[in-house]
Fold:
Amino acid sequence: MSDSLTIAVLGTGLMGAGMARNLSAAGHDVRAWNRTLSRAEPLAADGVRVVADPAEAVRGADVVLTMLLDGPATLDVVGAAAEALAPGTVWLQTGTVGPEAQGVLAARAAEYGLIFYDAPVLGTRPVADAGQLTVLAAGPQDARPVADRVFDAIGGSTVWLAGDAAKGPASRLKLVLNNWVLALTAATGETLALAKALDVDPDRFFEAIEGGSMDTPYLRMKAEAIRSGDFTPNFTVEGAAKDLDLIVAAGEAAGARLDLAAAGSARFHRAAAQGHGGKDMAAGYFASWTS
Structure:
């Protein structure tokens, strides 16, 4: 087996760009496609071949890695590349699309003769840039050595899960993890909004919890973004709203009512409607204000 894989990265947004760079840095032949081509073009400086068509990206590839917004977008892009996909190609589906969509994508992979992995990743843009994502993965044993070579380049660790990739065991875990992260983010925004509304100095809040069980690094990080006004996106408000919609739908389908997730979805959608959709999800803070 050659040390170098030919890898097509479809989707080079906040997460996919760092993944493509790290794959190239690991010595792989990387082709990248993004719907907005200009966003992918800077990757050329890192040795990535940027192409204008998804079929051109996947032609002759050993691995196709998708990091796209949602299930419909992923299905659309892979369909556009279908004529160039060779049976036996490994497809690593790394976006957060939810277990239902993952099942649809797995069925399409079977139709094309692809080896499909349910492989969402946990982390933000800086984590992706550093090649330290946590990969949640499920899929057949046979091609795991190939998948692991990709995961080793983009991640700091891989959590392999038992079960059929078509049933989305990794995607289910990703929704559970995201539910927790998004609840923390929404609670941070609401807490700082309440402090402002009640004329409470936020520093007194942080002094009161410092070193205790209620104090967390994630709270500190998102609070700093809000207090500094630096909403450079690591994960966007729009992405948070989309993921919470997936979480609520998955919970309902399984018989679990998720009131906090539903309220969080409404908050993030409201912040997006106020014009904050492309900002870091800490900007969900603005949903507390009518203007």
Notes: The first helix runs from residue 16 to 25. The longest strand covers residues 155-160. The chain has two domains: 6-167, 172-288. The mean pLDDT is 97.
